[in-house]
UniProtKB/TrEMBL annotation:
Binds directly to 16S ribosomal RNA. Signal peptide: none annotated. The keyword rRNA-binding applies. NCBIfam families: S20. One of its GO terms (biological process) is translation. This is Small ribosomal subunit protein bS20. It comes from the Bacteria. Residues 1-23 are annotated as: Disordered. The gene is rpsT. GO terms for molecular function: small ribosomal subunit rRNA binding; structural constituent of ribosome. It comes from Rhizobium grahamii. Keywords: Ribonucleoprotein, Ribosomal protein, RNA-binding, rRNA-binding. SUPFAM superfamilies: Ribosomal protein S20.
Amino acid sequence: MANTTSAKKATRKIARRTDVNKARRSRVRTFVRKVEEALASGDAAKAKEAFLAAQPELARAASKGVVHANTASRKVSRLAARVKALSVSATA
């Protein structure tokens, strides 16, 4: 348990930051899940729309340090490839 005033304040700050980061991480997962569901349903237009909404959320999470920048980039890249593959197969 923290004894000094500064250590007690630090634990309060950490708790607040943890809550904010949990909310951000949850928000990112929700947006990614919407893309996944659209891909699973086979709706190319809906998948593209969901992907365009998820992309800035991932970038924001990376800029805030909630997820690593490379992780966000990898997720965007893989989702983009799957959305593109779906739209190509839908038009073909």
